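Extended Data, panel c. Modelled sequence:
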Amino acid sequence: MKKRILVIAPHPDDEILGAGGTIAKYAKNGHDVTILTVAGHLPPLYTEEAYQQTVEEAKIAHSIVGVQTSVFLDLPATTLGQIPVHELNGKIAKTIEDVEPHILLFPYPDRHVDHRIIFESTMVGARPVKAGKSIELLAAYETLSETHWNAAHIEPNFTPNWTVDITDYVDQKMKALSAYASQIPPFPGPRSVEAIDALAKFRGTQAGFAYGESFHIVRMST
């Protein structure tokens, strides 16, 4: 059965960092993938030109992994806490209503304030009522470096309970990451291609295959 997949990214590149191989796998198998990018490098902290560069990079990255639809909310990064909660919840819920996803992947509530806020808003929008009733799988992805900079045991630890075999799609993931030239630093940067490759190997070998992406399942129904 053809599935509708919605991946919510706090910023351009999070979707590929956390789920690029999984996205490519779903797309290759004929499923429809939509990416919702909530915030980005906009004024007052960044220039409009910087943001437009990341949007163009995102479009290239999305085409590499087979995304069908890309949605950008164009909200300034790190200022989401200044938006009334009901407004942000409504913006995210609107996309959930439009897509009616069977599978929804979203950021784990890690060190980045935007990730935590978007996690909370998505949990509201994904409740099993109205469009949320279509969701068969709701899972949070990890994002180098933010997920790994949490204060262990003081804040929640990312503890995966689902790993996707992306062995056949890791090259697409790395190519898509490389499209984010303004965001991906050289090695030994924590989000360098080499670091992401190492994490994929680690997660894969934890589950018995070469490369993997891990998630924490929040809700699953059949």
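The chain has one domain: 4-220. This feature is highlighted in the accompanying rendering.
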